[in-house]
Design brief:
It is built from 3 helices and 9 strands; from the N terminus they run E-E-E-E-E-E-E-E-E-H-H-H. With 188 residues, it is α+β, with helices and mostly antiparallel strands. It folds into 2 domains: 47 residues, no CATH class; 101 residues, no CATH class. The strands form 3 sheets. A 3-stranded antiparallel β-sheet has the order 2-1-6, with no helix packed on it.
């Protein structure tokens, strides 16, 4: 007999799609002569139903993912409004497209125009994953710099060069132009 492992409106990670989703419906499959459902699937709004082993609950505690600007960056999927799932069967996830959310309130971030996604959907899917992984990649690069800083003489030369490149990249990321409105300048 099957028991529901997740509840409605619970946020879950859908590994096969590589995105977070919210459970819209719990769909029990009943068989004649049984008092409990024999199987339970979950509708998360991604075009098909998922079994419990394909989903992972959001962790309440433990190490949080690295963040930039205080918000976790995550890959989500939006419904494809310009084409039906049948019209875009050649897409990796027909009926949806990736968006990268960089704000805790699920807005702000990166989206792609529909025509560009339709031109090369696999390239756009890869770009979305890369952008969503950027905070983790930056944290890993900063870890390399910290390792080299602890013992610069013991680090191999290629690792020291890599740490220098990371430091230069970090300077580039932090070099934001001054406000053109004059808020950054001192009034005379």
């Amino acid at each position: 007999m099957a028991k529901a492992q997740f509840h409605r409106n619970q946020r879950v990670w859908v590994e096969s799609v590589g995105t977070w989703a919210t459970i819209d419906k719990i769909l029990p499959a009943w068989a004649k002569g049984f008092d409990e459902p024999v199987r339970i699937t979950y509708d998360v709004g991604l075009g098909r139903d998922f079994l419990a082993h394909e989903l992972q609950a959001e962790a309440d505690e433990g190490e949080a993912a690295p963040t930039l600007d205080g918000a976790s960056w995550r890959l989500m999927r939006a419904r494809n409004k310009w084409q039906t799932a049948e019209d875009c069967a050649h897409h990796p996830y027909p009926g949806s497209f990736p968006i990268v959310v960089t704000d805790a309130n699920d807005w702000g971030g990166w989206r792609v125009p529909g025509a560009e996604y339709d031109r090369d959907p696999r390239r756009i899917e890869r770009q979305a994953r890369l952008i969503a992984a950027a905070p983790r990649l930056l944290a890993m690069a900063q870890g390399i710099v910290a390792l080299v800083a602890e013992a610069p003489d013991e680090a191999p030369e290629p690792v020291r060069r890599l740490a220098e490149q990371v430091a230069a990249l970090e300077r580039y990321l932090n070099d934001v132009p001054a406000d053109p409105g004059g808020k950054d300048t001192v009034a005379a």
